[in-house]
Structures are given as structure tokens and as C-alpha cells.
Specification:
By secondary structure, this protein is an alpha/beta fold. 58% of the residues lie in helices and 10% in strands.
């Protein structure tokens, strides 16, 4: 049995992935940010560490660097990164921070298990990253949600959907406020967090606009993209409402 440290600040995603990995046979220690991951890595020994890249307080790349600098065995074990930002420079930043493998969100749970089992031999497939912004993604990839449901159960999927419904209005408010007071760092952070919760449910169109917003270089561009973000959030919520109305994920 491999002992895994898993850091993810999205509650629904953390529960879903943890549940699946535990059902597969792993011993999971889950925490909600990079700061907690570092503290666990100081106190306990693990076989693999999984870090969400975008987290509050201390993100995955900073946590990876600090874990690599520890004076215990955890400094040498494999670190897997999970990220919604799949551009090549983002992946390279994760590798530079000390991560061994970077997997894109929405994470394929079976791929995650295979990567854990053979982490030293898995090659990173970034072929789909180079031009994904130029493609027109789905509003919600229902196939992703169905895969999550089959692997982790209805409650895990409905939890992720509830988290999204709760969080996106908060992130929109943060984006609007940051734009109003011209606080670029806060805008970028909110856009990255919105991208992360979008990736968790396979909301590709919203992920695309959120990623573009975090990379925008001026307020006019941010304002234009923000309108697309707001409309995309509403589209995603309409689909979630329809799925709930149909009892697609909430049925026993």
C-alpha cells in the first residue's frame, strides 16, 4: 500500500479524488493547501505527493520547492502536479519547481492511479496543450462528470458541482472588484482560481476564458474577457441546474 499526501483546496475535488484513491487501495493523507502539505511532509514519510498547482496561501509550485528542500526522505520522492493551466510554460514552471509529472485538470482518475503506480516511467503528454486555446471547448464535458460518477460515486460528483455553484459568483465579484480598483495581482489570482474550479467539472469554455484572463496584459483586454467569463459561468450553471433537475447525478 502506497502512502500518498494529497493537497487540493477545492473541497469537492479533494473528497472525490481521495475517495477514489482510497477505494483503489492507497493510504491517503489529504490537506487543503500547500502550507499544510509542507507541514505534513516534515512530520510523516510518504511514497508519493500530489499537489494542486493553484492553491491559496501557498501554491503547488512553492510547496514543491519547499518539500524538495527538506532534510528527510520526502525530498526525494515523486511529486505529481495537477493543473488547469496546461500551457507549456506553466508545465515547465511545475517541473522547474521539482515536480516529476504534471497532469492536466480535469484529472483522469485512472490515469492518475497509473501515474502513481509507475511514476518514474510516465512521460508527460503535452501534445494537446499547444493549441487548446484555439479550439472551441465544451461548456461542460458531461463525459468527464460521468467518468467521475462511475469511479467515485454520485455524491462525490454532486459535491464538486455544488462547490462550483457556490464559488463562481464569489470569483466573479473578486474579478470585478480587482478590475475596479486596478489590482492586477488579485485579478490574476481570482482568474486562476476560477480556472481551477472550471477544470474540476470539465467546464472547458470557462477554463479557456479564465486562463486568457489571467494572462491578459491590460484592463481593456481583461474587461472584454470578463464579459465572456460571466456569460460562460451562467451557461455552466444552467447545465448544472438541468442535470440536477434530471437527477442525473443525485439519483441513488
Amino acid at each position: 500500500m502506497k502512502k500518498i499526501l494529497y493537497a487540493e483546496d477545492n473541497t469537492g475535488m479533494r473528497k472525490m479524488v481521495s475517495h477514489f484513491l482510497e477505494a483503489t487501495g492507497f493510504d491517503i493523507v489529504a490537506c487543503e493547501d500547500g502550507d499544510e502539505a509542507i507541514e505534513f511532509a516534515k512530520q510523516e514519510l510518504f511514497d508519493v505527493i500530489i499537489l494542486d498547482v493553484t492553491m491559496e496561501r501557498i501554491d503547488g509550485t512553492v510547496a514543491a520547492k519547499k518539500i524538495r528542500a527538506l532534510d528527510n526522505a520526502n525530498s526525494k520522492i515523486p511529486i505529481l502536479g495537477l493543473t488547469a493551466r496546461s500551457e507549456q510554460h506553466e508545465v515547465l514552471a511545475c517541473l522547474d519547481a521539482g515536480m516529476d509529472v504534471v497532469l492536466n485538470k480535469p484529472v483522469d482518475l485512472e490515469e492518475l492511479v497509473n501515474t502513481i503506480m509507475d511514476v518514474n516511467h510516465v512521460e508527460i503528454d503535452n501534445s494537446k496543450n499547444s493549441d487548446y486555446i484555439d479550439k472551441e471547448p465544451l461548456i461542460v464535458d458531461v463525459a468527464v462528470l460521468m467518468s467521475y460518477r462511475d469511479n467515485a460515486g454520485n455524491e462525490a460528483v454532486s459535491g464538486v458541482l455544488r462547490d462550483f455553484s457556490k464559488q463562481w459568483p464569489i470569483k466573479i465579484a473578486e474579478l470585478l472588484l480587482s478590475l475596479t480598483i486596478n489590482h492586477t495581482d488579485s485579478f490574476i489570482r481570482a482568474a486562476e482560481e476560477l480556472a481551477a474550479i472550471s477544470a474540476a467539472i470539465g467546464a472547458g469554455k470557462l477554463l479557456k476564458y479564465s486562463s486568457l484572463a489571467s494572462a491578459a496584459t491590460d484592463d481593456d483586454e481583461r474587461s472584454s474577457i470578463l464579459l465572456n467569463i460571466i456569460n460562460s459561468c451562467k451557461e455552466v450553471q444552467e447545465i448544472i441546474d438541468k442535470l440536477n433537475d434530471d437527477y442525473f447525478f443525485l439519483a441513488a
